[in-house]
Amino acid sequence: MMLAGTLAQICRMAISSLGRELAAWKPSRERATFGAEAMLSVALSVALANALHLSDTWWAAISGFAVMQTSFAGSVERAAHRIMGTLIGAALGTMVGPWIGDRPWLFVPALGAIGAVAVYQANGSKAAYAWVLGGVTALMVTYEAHGLVSVRATALFAALRVAEVMVGTLACLLVASVFHFGPKWYGKKGPPSASATARAAGESVVPSAAVLPPSPESMRPTRMLLCLQGALAITILAALTYVLHLPGFAQAMVTAIAVLILPAGLPADRTRQPVMEKMVHRVAGCLLAGTLGVALLPLMQGQAILCMFALAVGVWIGCHVQTGREGASYVGRQFTIAFIMVFVQDHHWSADPVPALMRLSGILTGIVVLAAVMLATSRLHLPPSSNDVSV
Q1: According to the model, what pLDDT value does residue 334 have?
Q2: Which of 311, 303, 286 is nearest to 44 (CA)?
Q3: b/e per residue 332-341 (b: at least 16 CB within 10 A)
Q4: What pLDDT, on the 0 to 100 scale, is given for residue 8?
Q5: Residue 382, Cβ neighbours under 10 Å: how many?
Q6: What is the pLDDT of residue 199?
Q7: CA atoms within 13 A on the CB side of 331
Q8: pLDDT at 88 over 90
């Protein structure tokens, strides 16, 4: 009952914060610049992926967006983590997947173990994004291996996934470099603006309060609980996939891991509500993007120029909400990712909404399963660390 009340309150707050953000539509120069960077990065990612005839263009586009940060240094660091995590995860999935793919009694718990390690390590590491991408990529490759049942075919799938991530990441770095070094190359006159100074120093243009991170010892019980919840959710999803052949399983796995990664500096005793907030915001962003995107697809008629224009506008709007201060940032980020999933098809422009709906259904499935797991473990309290001090 208490969880239901908390969930209802989070839903009301999400709607209210999104409404305030849309009502206070004041695009500053910094927010508009970030939106333009992300928009160009996604467009360049799509163009390069199509030119190289990559199979999953949408994954390259998401990489082009996900790596982009409000500071150049942040984008470079995130790019390194995404590439490193993807390479390690692809290698692990290629080595493990073909040998356990046809053995459900090994395959299902192995996926749960991979997810558990990713969640546990990401919540206690400075390279959290690398752990997330490593876990997600290993899960995707291992999952595909159970259908491919071939080392060569699995390695090819893993190589394509790495190529798509590399294309999107490099496109992002190219765009970020132009915006970062461009004014210097052209000898821009006058004192640098506050945003330029912040970006040169590697700071975000969106102000944030300084936080003192909790000690690793105090976070260990929380990390263990989140690790358990992630393992159970992914294990259930893997088992359901074997029995029911669920569509969009990859997005369900990504969701089960992504929403369990806590913000840096969060107190160890205040974790349940942030996770629930991420779940609600992810659903809200995906539903808004799915509804708008599916409504627009027939109007685009698969025309490249129209689709690219609609994609650019959607990315810019999502980035504007993401960089706002009204509490709807994660809604904006999830809206952008879902909008990319809708408009960017596998390897060509199309007005067919079915592939997009399958991906979005995977996200919603992941949320439902994870919510059920959290409800089942809501009364579970792991023993505190021996170094914890009660106050």
Answers
A1: 92
A2: 311
A3: bbbbbbbbbb
A4: 75
A5: 14
A6: 45
A7: 25
A8: yes
- Between CA 302 and CA 284 the distance in angstroms is 26
Amino acid in position 330: Y
- pTM for this prediction: 0.85
Distances (CA, A) of 324 to 31, 210, 319: 8, 18, 9
Count how many domains the chain has: 1
Question: Within 10 A of 297 (CB to CB), how many other CB atoms are there?
Answer: 21
Calculate the CA 142 to chain-centre distance: 19
Identify the CA nearest to 95 among candidates 147, 169, 155, 6.
Answer: 155
Q: Report the C-alpha gap between 261 and 349 in whole angstroms.
A: 33
Six token digits for residue 203: 């700071």
What pLDDT sits at residue 210?
Answer: 42
Asked whether 319 and 329 are in contact (CB, 8 A), the reply is no
Question: What b-and-e string marks burial along 310-327, b requiring 16 or more CB atoms within 10 Å of the CB?
Answer: bbbebbbbbbbbbbbebb
Query: For residue 368, what are the domain limits?
Result: 2-183+216-376
- So what's the pLDDT on residue 358? 84
Residue 193 belongs to a domain = no
pLDDT of residue 55 exceeding 90, the answer is no
Q: Is residue 311 in a domain?
A: yes
Residue pointed to by tokens 């439902």: 368
Chain position carrying tokens 């059920």: 372
**Structural domain contains residue 137:** yes
Residue 49 scores a pLDDT above 80: yes
d(CA 316, CA 132): 25
Q: Is there a domain that residue 356 lies in? A: yes
Average pLDDT value for residue range 379-389: 49
Give, for 322, the enclosing helix (H) or strand (E). Answer: helix 304-322
Write the pLDDT tens digit of every residue in 122-168.
998 889 999 999 999 999 999 888 888 788 999 999 999 999 999 99
DSSP 144-201: HHHHH--HHHHHHHHHHHHHHHHHHHHHHHHHHHHHHHHHHHTT--SPPPHHHHHHHT
